Amino acid sequence: MLSARRALTGCFDGVLDMFQDVSSSLGWAEKMNGAMVPVSAAEHVKMTLKSGKVPEDLSGVYLRVGPNAQHWPPKKRTHAFDGDGMVHSVRIRPGGDASYHCRFMETPRRYIFEKEMGSEWFLRVGEMQGIAGLLKIMTTGKKKAKLSGLEEDEMGTANTAIGFTPDGKLWALNESSAPFRFTLDEAGVPHSVGFDHLQGTLKESISAHPKFDQRTGEILFHGRKLPTIFYAGRIAEGKLVERVDIDMPVGGFHHDMCITENYMVMIDGAMAFTPQEAIKGKQLWTFQEDKKLRFGIFHRSKKLTQEMPWSGLKQMWQLRPLAEAVRHLGFTGIADFGVLAPEVVGRAVGAWIVHTCYAYDEGDEIVLWTPLCYYNATGLLDVERKC
Ligand SMILES: [Fe+2]
Question: Range of 40's domain?
Answer without folding.
Answer: 1-194
